[in-house]
Specification:
The chain has 216 residues and is of the alpha/beta class. It is built from 6 helices and 7 strands; from the N terminus they run E-H-E-H-E-H-E-H-E-E-H-H-E.
Amino acid sequence: MNVLVFAPHNDDEVLGVGGTIVKLAKQGNDVFVCEVTAGSNQERVKNIKNEALNAHKVLGVKDTIFLDLPVVELKHYSVIELNSKVLSVVNDIKPEIVFIPHKGDIHIDHREVVDAAMVALRPSNNPQLKSIYAYETLSETEWNVPSCDNFFIPSVWSDISETFDLKIKAMQCYKLQLKTFPNPRSLEAIEALAKFRGSTICVNYAESFMAIRIII
């Protein structure tokens, strides 16, 4: 199967889906990651892209697509162009499983990516698509205003006990993104969340998702 992960920013895919990416890749699936935005500092962008490619090599990602759209500016970017670029990725890969950010995340880029992805993933255009899941991103999902619309309510769990070490190894590739604890983008916080999600289903480590659409 083809699996597509949309990451508004570099490292979102590791934080939210890293362990599951490894598991799906090991099962023989082709996993693609679409990094949507990039900054304006070209030297920093180059370094982060290299970090992303190194992280994706650890995870077993087949290919990485960089759209290089303006970070923190997607709200002001042409909706037609954003939708077109995201649709092009979907049409090229024809995914059967897709992971997208959570609509309730605090970062506006995440919400814009969700909207564009859902337009591109309409059932009428994707007869091969079997499931769409929303993932949580530390420092984004938990920091928004608490409301019924913003709550992340997991309904699907992925046991990553056997792949958690590679999730951590991939995150360590993002030297420019990692913070020290108690910042949520720290290795300690990543482990704490994975243990908490794991304890919900009585395993050592897990990632959780919200089921957006599943076709049986």
